[in-house]
Amino acid sequence: MVRTYAIAYIATAIAFLVLDALWLTTMAERLYRPGIGHLMREGFSPGPALLFYLLYVGGMVFFAVVPGLEKQSWPHALGLGAALGLLAYATFGLTNQAVLRDWPWHVTAIDMAWGTFATGVASAIASAVVLRWLPGASH
């Protein structure tokens, strides 16, 4: 079981990091800089970013990937991952919307859509990889 969780964590981390890196490298200057550039650093702080990815990937494994493995269904992981992504990114965006001056609605909406998509797809990919490499992984 530990092997299954380790492979699930690694597969989830790779899938999510690839998707998020593509998103951030293509959208940071197009979406975030024009909308919230006055709040952004020139670079990024690696410590909080690393902690976010470690924790968020763990949440994806716990709340989406493992339940997908238990049902032997990557579509189940996709749905649970999408729900988790919506909730997590809505928490960030809507909280910012509520407490920060001049936080644009379109940034919140697009970020929520991205979180839903990326978390769902990465959870599905990770679940499919584990199911393929470790048949019967839920047992």
From TrEMBL:
<dbReference type="InterPro" id="IPR018687">
    <property type="entry name" value="DUF2177_membr"/>
</dbReference>
<feature type="transmembrane region" description="Helical">
    <location>
        <begin position="6"/>
        <end position="28"/>
    </location>
</feature>
<protein>
    <submittedName>
        <fullName>Putative membrane protein</fullName>
    </submittedName>
</protein>
<feature type="transmembrane region" description="Helical">
    <location>
        <begin position="78"/>
        <end position="100"/>
    </location>
</feature>
<keyword id="KW-0812">Transmembrane</keyword>
<feature type="transmembrane region" description="Helical">
    <location>
        <begin position="49"/>
        <end position="66"/>
    </location>
</feature>
<keyword id="KW-1133">Transmembrane helix</keyword>
<feature type="transmembrane region" description="Helical">
    <location>
        <begin position="112"/>
        <end position="134"/>
    </location>
</feature>
<dbReference type="Pfam" id="PF09945">
    <property type="entry name" value="DUF2177"/>
</dbReference>
<keyword id="KW-0472">Membrane</keyword>
